[in-house]
Amino acid sequence: MRTTTADEAAALIPDGASLMIGGFMGVGTPEHIVDALLRQKRRDLTVIANDSAIPGRGIGKLVSAGALRKLVASHIGLNPETQQQMLAGKLEVELVPQGTLIERIRAGGYGLGGVLTPTGVGTVVEEGKRRIDVDGKPYLLETALHADFALVQAFMSDYLGNLVYALTARNFNPVIAMAGETVVAEVEQIVPVGMISPDNVVTPAVLVDYLVART
Fold this sequence. Notes:
- This protein is 23% helix and 31% strand.
- It is an alpha/beta fold.
């Protein structure tokens, strides 16, 4: 693990990369890293996230800039720009039920091939997916999700990279930190090793590759 700047972290991410980005409507999203991606004019990105926030906030900034090729999310209802780009054929959007989305990410982080879920059986969600009966009940096989990079936001870290989250800003960050090939954490404060109780660590340092301090 090494500390770096938002711009240096963004420079690691090439055009066409796949990114998992934490946050729920922008809460818990690493805004400084997102801004750095915008400054460096990244394009053709695939973003896997809960939502696309709103225009001018979080992932919504990337949508407005036309930086995304594909979005995998649970909803886009509060970002009209995402909807417009999807309807215009400029952005591929894969909508996944929220519980299914996070389970697919969890499966990717835990080394599983996928999960079985009854959610979506008999609906449009089932299209193109394998249906499996277990004890007489139908389930859909939802494959695991991985990404080249996981971009997370945490409240605190020590200099090793152990992460602590604050309240609802935690949301999906710990789970996506498991499923990214390279994990970049943006934190509000960095403290000396030993200042964080082991019981308070949510994402252990072994998962974190780069640490970006908010300034």
